[in-house]
Amino acid sequence: MKTMLTMASASTLALLIGASAVSAQGTLVGTEALDDRIDDISDDAQEDLEEARDDARFGPEQFQPGWSGNVAMTYAGSSGNTETQDLALAGRLRYGAGQWTHTVGFGVEYGEDDGDETKKEFFTVYDANYSLTDRFYVFGLARAQFDEYAAFETDAFLGFGPGYRIINTPQTAWRVQAGPGIRYVEDQLGNDDTEAAMIASSRLYHAFNETVYLTNDTDILASDANTLVTNDLGLNFAMTDQLSTRVSYRTDYNDEAVEGTDKTDNRLGVSLVMGF
């Protein structure tokens, strides 16, 4: 198990891309398919502080009408006995209109160790969410990930399904969703496969007071290729209307991890997030 502490500095940029309505990221596909992965890069608070407390979150619309989004970038470098560079950029853009919510997201990671490339990854996701009632909704999801150093160099998913808001109050919100899909994978040797897959997700939010709230996001993606599970627990502190701090603990599980590596990874993150 590997644990690391990262500090993320965020800047407001205009985005054309964001992440999934139910937030799942990276090697995992969920309603926020790559959102968990984007949060993994930027340690972004799951929702902008303003949106997290907006009444629209608890009604038919998950987010306010109109445009919103955020972006975060991290960089770390070292010199001396070892020379390393790690760069990550992630962002999301949301648009709410009536009963529809559209979310687009992206993430980029690059790393070097003593001049040798150690990480090169890009991923993006588009999610559409349509509310049928205050509690029932349906979603459609498309995502793609390209990673030169993972077991699967290309991993893409297209799926849809129903969702239900179990608890739906301004203080506490809990929703679950699941559905079938199609998954395409290609390994480092160029061998590819298209197969049926299943995605299941859970999203929990609880506000302790006006400035502190907790989120816990869980996603499971299963197909013949492997089963991926991710859980992201976060405690968020609002400092201003646009500025927040997030402390998170993320666990990733892959039952078909690359030989010689652990099936489970843990990451502790601390971030500074700016929303707009």
Q: How does this structure look, described?
A:
The chain is 4% helix and 62% strand. It contains two helices and 13 strands. It has a 13-stranded mixed barrel. It has one domain (5-274): Beta Barrel (Porin), CATH 2.40.160. A hairpin with a 3-residue loop joins β7 and β8. By secondary structure, the protein is mainly beta.
Question: What is the structure about, briefly put?
Answer:
Helix content is 4%, strand content 62%. It is built from two helices and 13 strands; from the N terminus they run E-H-H-E-E-E-E-E-E-E-E-E-E-E-E.
CATH 4th-level superfamily: monomeric porin ompg
**Strand percent estimate:** over 45%
Helical stretch count? 2
Strand order of the largest sheet: 1-2-3-4-5-6-7-8-9-10-11-12-13
Instruction: State the CATH architecture.
Output: Beta Barrel
Q: If you average the pLDDT, what whole number results? A: 75
| Low-confidence region ranges | 1-31, 43-61
Biggest sheet descriptor: 13 strands, mixed, barrel
Spatial shape: globular
Question: What is the string of helix and strand elements?
Answer: EHHEEEEEEEEEEEE
Features of the shown structure:
mainly beta, 13 strands, globular, single chain, disordered N terminus, 13-stranded mixed beta barrel, Porin
Architecture blueprint of SSEs:
Blueprint: E1 5-10, H1 35-42, H2 49-52, E2 66-78, E3 84-97, E4 100-113, E5 116-131, E6 136-147, E7 152-168, E8 172-187, E9 192-207, E10 212-223, E11 227-238, E12 243-254, E13 264-274
